[in-house]
Each structure stands twice: as structure tokens, then as C-alpha cells.
């Protein structure tokens, strides 16, 4: 009998009919545009529309469950109590088959009613007000048991909340319960739990993945809106792929580990599940940040993740143009299910259609990550789990001697998988084997980190399957631990490198009643969950970069929410900002854009000029928009530059005319060629200084052949001819004697002859 909650988000509310082959083929690899990381989602409306008409399909889920709840509360269409009752009712109906929760809170309705009272009083609500959240049972909660999925901590109630849980509660969230997991996070199927085995909502005969299988199954079955998990080697991403939900593993140190039961301290991170990337971003925004109780938590500033998300549905062109995506070659070879490979390649093809540039990337150290991970994780686990001895922590077994008390308490409390990993870690850390195993594993970890760094310098993101196969049947690999360990090969390298990764549904493969989901894993640089370094796109922030680089293709910018524009506009240039304001339809964006125009004014004309404008406006008691001031100042500067240019052109023309006139005058003093020697007193130009001679030669060569000079010389010749005709002719000897006398007079000073040089 099929599960009542099998794939409830995508298919039918109760009984399910098989997916038609043509529908599966049409949908497999087909991607929606809701995911910010690569605009990927799998709402599977195509599947629902192809179901038998005898069943009433569920309405397609909203892009964000959290935002939908908040809008319902603020509009008074629904109350928090009604929403909580709906989730609890569904949990009661589906839990006998799914078994995703180890404990359900008894205070859910009371907390929901408190939220309703805040709504009625008009008080400000937190960003997660009324949102029901599941928490993995290895994350401490003060008002509920926290067992880590182990019998050794059965009934344990911490005296404090984990930092992540405390921040969720401060944001108004309601913890609906604690979800199942593999004991202390050691496992990939949730079959290693000390209490129960969780089933996959898509096919209750299959595993949901692990170790956070309970959290993933709860979100997939809509038993809660979102949930927290932990990721040591893929414990968030692999269950997200198996259950068809979004799973985010942040950068190591992005979220405080205080209150998380340690498995491998250098690898553990708290992650989150959601039905959309928006939900995952909102949860990350609530829990991320430095914590004084965790020395490994990062001091990096936490941006507002959720406000940067924009649906790619708003674009009608190629929004991922220029994005460089690297497909890891080692993840598409032998040992990977062909259906998974087909879905990943179909997703990659869709990204290319959206404008991305796809290349194949080889990571030579990729295959070395799996053995290195299990050596490091087991070694750290053997140290961390030593505290559970029945004295400091854990249920105690009565014994006559202390050694027997330790041994019996741990033997009865730990499961077989935990015992095996403790033994493996103790062996790797023992004298004589430390350098052979643990030290070499650390060296491999360095190689893995370097290979990811090199690959991400050439590509914006890397993609790969989240798991080599879809969800397999319960009990299929219980007796083959090596095969189960090999299933982590796609995810463990990310933990070794400490970089973030996001998994989104990208298609389906054959199996089960309605097909089995496949997840696409996207890997980015450290702290790139939403931080925008302005050089490369980030995992959850790709749509923001898409909006900035493709503003010309937005249809009606005026329809974009104002709080989204606040994050887009600071990254725009003047042309893009002008385009946004001009493309609005009767909407005034000056509350957002005025500060940006002021910034542009200060950049172009200086801060002193801006302060002067402000001072003058205060004196005149008038207020102008900074865009008007910017445009007026720009126009004034352009006019001043044009006037200055005209003046310079006029001065240049006058200088050229004056220079030409001077040169013409110089050239006009040069007699015709026939009389040169007589004019220069017999010696010619060679008797002058070289500089003067060169000047005269250059002037003659440049201007003697010009039209003005020729005309001027012709006029002088004509005038001299008229003068010679009008004067009485003198004897030739007289003219010659006068010339010789004047010449000889010029050749002496004070009656003394001067030697010619």
C-alpha cells in the first residue's frame, strides 16, 4: 500500500497513481526558476497535472513556505494556531509510516496562540513568527529530550538551548519536535538510529538518506515548514537529494556549533532544509553569525540573505550569461547511476540555455577524499565520544568496578556503527600508526582544499550529483558497510575543504511509485552563501547578480518589491539606475534612489560641493531630489566645458593666423632668386649665422609656394615696375657707384676696414 504522505508537496494528498512515462520524460531534468543558486527547483507541477483525474491534487506550493505564512498572519487570513493545527494534524496522520520524529513538543499550540496575541496587539513580529521548525536530535533543546539518536542518552534533557535553536526562537519560530537521525550522525540511511528507522516520503520502502534523514523527510512530508540538520560528510545534502527538498551546508564556522553534539569537530556544521531556496536563506539568516560560546565560529559579517533573492521568472533573456560553471568529471564516471547522470546533464544543459558557460573540471584528489574523511572523522569521534562513559554523560549501568562500569555503560548504550568507528579512530591515533594514517589523511585534506580553491578560481561554481544513486531500499546495504561508505563520495570532499554547498532537486529517475528525486549539488567559495564579493556569483545570490547584469531585460521594474531594489540598486551604475527609474510605471522610487544619486553626486563633483548644495537648500528652505541636482550639475559642467572648448578653438585659430601672418612677412622680404647674391652683398645667406640661415630657408620652403605669398610677391613686383617707370632713369655707373659706396660704408667702422668672415 503506498504511503499517505508520499511526495505530498508535489503529488496527491492521499493515494498516488504511477507517473506516466511521457510525463516523467518531460519533467526529468526540467528546472524551474525559483532557486537562487542556479535558478533551480522541482515543484513538479507537470507531474501533478498528469495524475489521474479521480484524485484531487494539492495546490502547487508557494516559492516560500515561510513568506506565505507571514503574509497570512499579517493579512489576518489565517492565525498561527490554525497553521500549527494543520501541521500537527498532518504529522499525526503521517508519522506512523514516516517515523521522522523522536519527540513532538507539547507546547506548540500554546506558542502559536502567543503569536496570535502579538498579531492582535499590533506588536512587531519576528521574521519567523509562527513558523514550525523541526530540529535534529543531536542539537540541544532545553525543553525537549536530546538523545543524539543513541540509547546512551535516552531521556537526557539539556539545561540550555543550542545557539542556533536560541536564535530561531528569538526570531519567533516554534520548534515542533526533534527529528530522527543515525546515532550521533554516523550513518547515511537513518537505519543507524537507536530508536527507529525513518522512511522516505516518496517511497516508504526506501531510506531517506542520513544522517539527517528525519529532518529531510519531515520537510518533504510537510510535517514542518523547515528543519535543522547537521552535516559532517554530507548528512544534509544526501538526504535532501533522496527526499526532493533543498538542503544547504554552509561554510565551516558560518553557524555556531555550540549545543551540537560533537562527532568530528573539524568537519561538523549545522545546515538547514526547506521547500525552496528562499526558506533556506531565511533560516540561514536567522542562525548565522559569530558566537562567543564557539571559538570556531567566524567573525565574517552576516548579510541579509533573504532580501537578495529574486525570481528568475522576471527575466525574459539569458539571466546566467557569463556565469562559469564547472562540472566535476570524477563525479560522472563509473559507479554513478545512469539515471542520475542523465538528470545532472539535463540540468547542466538547462543552465547553458540560461546563458551559463559550462566546462568540465578535473579534481585529481577527488577520489582520495573518501578514505581521508573516514580516517579523520573516526579519529575525532573516538576522542569526542569518550565523554559518554556513564559518569560524565550517558546512562549508567550498575557495576562493582569502575572499569566494568565504563565498559558496560558504553557497550549497552552505543550501537554497532558507533562502536566500529570508535575502534577505527582509536587504531588510527595509536602509537606507530598516527603518521601512517592520521597524518597522511591531513595531508590529503590539504590537497583537496587546494584543488577546490584552484577550480573555483577558474569557475564561479562547481556542480555534481549529491549522491551516486537515488534512494535505495531499507536494509539493502546494512550488511555492506563499504558500499554504504562509498555513497558519501560526492559530498565528503566539500567538508574536507570547508566550503559551502547547496542541493536542489533537478529531476527524477525510475523507481518507486512516482519516480525518485535527484539532487544537484552546487559548490562555491568559502562564505559565499550570500556574501557578494562583486567578482564571482555566490550560491544563493546568483539571482541578485543576474538582476544587476541584466537590468535592461527587466519588463516592469516598478513591479519589483522595494526591499529587493534596496539590495539591487547599490550595485548599479548611473545608466542602470536611470533605466530603473525610467522603466517604472507611475511609481516613485526616490526613497530608495535618492541616497544613491547623492552618492553619485559626491563621486562626480566632490563632497564639498554636495555639502554646499545642502547648505544652500537649508538657507533657501527648499528641497530638491538629488537626481535633479546631479543632472543640473552635469549639464552645467558640460556647458562650461563646451564654452571653454570654443574659447580654446578661437585662441588657437587666432594664434595660427598670427603665426601665418608673421611667416608671410618674413618670406616677403626674400628677393627673387636672380638678385640674391647682390642683395646679400655678394656673400649670400652663407655670410649670416647658421641659425638665421636655417630659419630663412625653412620659412621660404614652407611659404614661398603658398598662394598668398605668390600673390603678395607678384603685387610687389608690379609695384616696383611701376615705380621704376615713373622715376627718371639714372646712368648705370651712377647707380652702381652709389651701391658700391654704400656697401663699402657698411663694411667699415670709424674709417677702419672690417674683415669679412
UniProtKB/TrEMBL annotation:
The gene is GATA. Its main location: mitochondrion. Keywords: ATP-binding, Chloroplast, Coiled coil, Ligase, Mitochondrion, Nucleotide-binding, Plastid, Protein biosynthesis. It comes from Musa troglodytarum. Allows the formation of correctly charged Gln-tRNA(Gln) through the transamidation of misacylated Glu-tRNA(Gln) in chloroplasts and mitochondria. The reaction takes place in the presence of glutamine and ATP through an activated gamma-phospho-Glu-tRNA(Gln). This is Glutamyl-tRNA(Gln) amidotransferase subunit A, chloroplastic/mitochondrial. One of its GO terms (molecular function) is ATP binding. Residues 82-530 form the Amidase domain. Subunit of the heterotrimeric GatCAB amidotransferase (AdT) complex, composed of A, B and C subunits. The keyword Oxidoreductase does not apply. The active site is at 136 (charge relay system), 211 (charge relay system), 235 (acyl-ester intermediate). InterPro entries: Amidase, Amidase_CS, Amidase_dom, AS_sf, GatA, RNA_pol_II_trans_fac_SIII_A. PANTHER family: GLUTAMYL-TRNA(GLN) AMIDOTRANSFERASE SUBUNIT A, MITOCHONDRIAL, TRANSAMIDASE. Gene3D superfamilies: 6.10.250.3180, Amidase signature (AS) domain. GO terms for biological process: glutaminyl-tRNAGln biosynthesis via transamidation; mitochondrial translation; transcription elongation by RNA polymerase II. Its EC number is 6.3.5.7.
Amino acid at each position: 500500500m503506498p504511503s499517505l504522505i508520499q511526495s505530498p508537496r508535489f503529488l496527491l494528498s492521499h493515494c498516488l497513481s504511477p507517473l506516466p512515462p511521457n510525463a516523467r520524460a518531460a519533467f526529468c531534468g526540467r528546472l524551474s526558476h525559483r532557486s537562487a543558486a542556479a535558478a533551480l527547483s522541482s515543484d513538479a507541477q507537470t507531474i501533478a497535472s498528469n495524475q489521474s483525474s479521480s484524485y484531487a491534487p494539492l495546490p502547487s506550493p508557494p516559492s516560500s513556505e515561510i513568506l506565505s505564512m507571514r503574509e497570512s498572519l499579517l493579512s489576518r487570513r489565517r492565525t498561527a494556531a490554525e497553521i500549527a493545527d494543520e501541521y500537527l494534524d498532518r504529522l499525526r496522520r503521517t508519522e506512523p509510516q514516516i517515523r521522522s520524529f523522536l519527540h513532538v513538543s507539547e507546547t506548540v499550540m500554546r506558542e502559536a496562540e502567543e503569536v496570535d496575541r502579538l498579531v492582535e496587539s499590533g506588536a512587531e513580529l519576528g521574521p519567523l513568527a509562527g513558523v514550525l521548525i523541526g530540529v535534529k536530535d543531536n542539537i540541544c533543546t532545553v525543553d525537549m529530550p536530546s538523545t543524539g539518536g543513541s540509547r546512551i542518552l535516552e531521556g537526557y534533557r539539556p539545561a540550555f538551548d543550542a545557539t542556533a535553536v536560541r536564535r530561531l526562537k528569538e526570531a519567533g519560530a516554534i520548534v515542533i519536535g526533534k527529528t530522527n537521525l543515525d546515532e550521533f550522525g554516523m550513518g547515511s540511511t537513518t537505519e543507524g538510529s537507536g530508536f527507529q528507522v525513518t522512511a522516505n516520503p516518496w517511497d516508504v520502502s526506501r531510506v531517506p538518506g542520513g544522517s539527517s534523514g528525519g529532518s529531510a523527510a519531515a520537510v518533504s512530508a510537510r510535517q514542518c515548514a523547515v528543519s535543522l540538520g547537521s552535516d559532517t560528510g554530507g548528512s544534509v545534502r544526501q538526504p535532501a537529494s533522496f527526499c526532493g527538498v533543498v538542503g544547504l551546508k554552509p561554510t565551516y564556522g558560518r553557524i555556531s556549533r555550540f549545543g551540537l553534539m560533537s562527532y568530528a569537530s573539524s568537519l561538523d556544521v549545522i545546515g538547514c532544509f526547506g521547500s525552496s531556496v528562499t526558506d533556506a536563506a531565511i533560516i540561514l539568516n536567522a542562525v548565522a553569525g559569530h558566537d562567543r560560546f564557539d571559538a570556531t565560529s567566524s567573525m565574517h559579517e552576516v548579510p541579509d540573505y533573504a532580501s537578495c533573492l529574486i525570481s528568475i521568472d522576471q527575466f525574459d533573456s539569458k539571466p546566467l550569461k557569463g556565469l562559469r560553471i564547472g562540472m566535476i568529471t570524477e563525479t560522472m564516471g563509473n559507479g554513478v547511476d545512469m539515471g542520475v547522470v542523465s538528470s545532472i546533464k539535463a540540468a547542466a544543459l538547462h543552465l547553458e540555455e540560461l546563458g551559463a558557460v559550462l566546462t568540465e573540471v578535473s579534481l585529481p584528489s577527488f577520489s582520495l577524499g573518501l578514505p581521508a574523511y573516514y580516517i579523520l572523522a573516526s579519529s575525532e569521534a573516538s576522542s569526542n565520544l569518550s565523554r559518554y562513559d556513564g559518569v560524565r554523560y550517558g546512562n549508567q549501568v550498575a557495576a562493582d568496578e569502575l572499569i566494568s562500569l565504563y565498559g558496560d555503560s558504553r557497550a549497552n548504550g552505543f550501537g554497532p556503527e558507533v562502536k566500529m568507528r570508535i575502534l577505527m579512530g582509536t587504531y588510527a591515533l595509536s602509537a606507530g600508526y598516527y603518521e601512517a594514517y592520521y597524518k597522511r589523511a591531513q595531508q590529503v585534506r590539504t590537497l583537496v582544499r587546494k584543488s577546490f580553491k584552484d577550480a573555483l578560481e577558474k569557475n564561479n561554481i562547481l556542480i555534481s550529483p549529491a549522491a551516486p544513486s537515488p534512494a535505495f531500499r531499507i536494509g539493502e546495504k546494512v550488511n555492506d558497510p563499504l558500499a554504504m561508505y562509498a555513497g558519501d563520495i560526492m559530498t565528503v570532499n566539500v567538508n574536507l575543504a570547508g566550503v559551502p554547498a547547496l542541493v536542489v532537486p533537478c529531476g527524477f529517475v525510475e523507481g518507486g511509485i512516482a519516480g525518485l528525486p535527484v539532487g544537484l549539488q552546487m559548490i562555491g567559495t568559502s562564505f559565499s552563501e550570500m556574501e557578494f564579493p562583486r567578482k564571482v556569483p555566490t550560491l544563493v545570490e546568483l539571482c541578485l547578480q543576474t538582476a544587476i547584469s541584466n537590468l535592461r531585460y527587466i519588463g516592469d521594474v516598478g513591479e519589483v518589491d522595494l526591499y529587493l531594489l534596496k539590495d539591487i540598486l547599490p550595485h548599479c551604475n548611473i545608466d542602470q539606475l536611470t533605466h530603473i527609474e525610467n522603466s517604472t510605471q507611475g511609481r516613485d522610487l526616490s526613497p530608495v534612489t535618492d541616497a544613491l544619486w547623492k552618492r553619485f553626486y559626491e563621486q562626480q563633483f566632490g563632497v564639498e560641493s554636495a555639502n554646499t548644495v545642502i547648505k544652500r537648500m537649508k538657507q533657501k528652505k527648499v528641497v530638491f531630489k538629488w537626481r535633479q541636482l546631479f543632472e543640473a550639475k552635469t549639464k552645467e559642467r558640460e556647458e562650461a566645458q563646451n564654452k571653454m572648448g570654443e574659447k580654446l578653438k578661437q585662441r588657437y585659430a587666432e594664434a595660427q593666423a598670427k603665426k601665418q601672418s608673421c611667416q608671410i612677412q618674413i618670406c616677403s622680404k626674400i628677393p627673387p632668386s636672380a638678385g640674391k647674391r647682390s642683395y646679400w652683398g655678394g656673400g649670400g645667406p652663407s655670410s649670416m649665422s647658421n641659425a638665421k640661415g636655417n630659419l630663412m630657408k625653412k620659412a621660404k620652403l614652407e611659404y614661398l609656394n603658398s598662394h598668398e605669398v605668390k600673390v603678395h610677391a607678384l603685387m610687389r613686383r608690379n609695384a616696383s615696375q611701376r615705380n621704376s617707370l615713373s622715376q627718371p632713369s639714372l646712368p648705370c655707373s651712377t647707380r652702381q657707384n652709389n651701391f658700391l659706396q654704400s656697401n663699402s660704408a657698411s663694411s667699415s667702422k670709424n674709417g677702419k676696414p672690417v674683415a669679412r668672415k
